[in-house]
Amino acid sequence: MAVPKRKHSNSRTGKRRSHDRLKKRSLAYCPQCSTAVPTHVICPKCGYYQGRTVVEQEEA
Asked: For residues 18-29, b (16+ Cβ closer than 10 Å) or e, as one string?
């Protein structure tokens, strides 16, 4: 059975784990109402997505 001869250093372990973190969601601005919205998501304020109004918003 294969067994490591030496312990991996903390530096080497950290280098391996450096890509495991969660990344922030990138934000884009809605071309209709200029609200910051995550990419690939319908705008919650005006219902606009990919050049058309997908969800009709009620006036409050």
From this structure: eeeeeeeeeeee
pTM of the model: 0.55
What number is the average pLDDT over the span 5-20? Answer: 96
Whole-angstrom Cα distance, residue 38 to residue 57? 19
**Other beta carbons less than 10 A from residue 46's beta carbon:** 19
Q: Kind and range of the H or E element at 10?
A: helix 10-17
Report which DSSP code applies to 50: T
Tokens found for residue 51 = 């050049």
Confirm if 10 and 18 have CB atoms less than 8 A apart: no
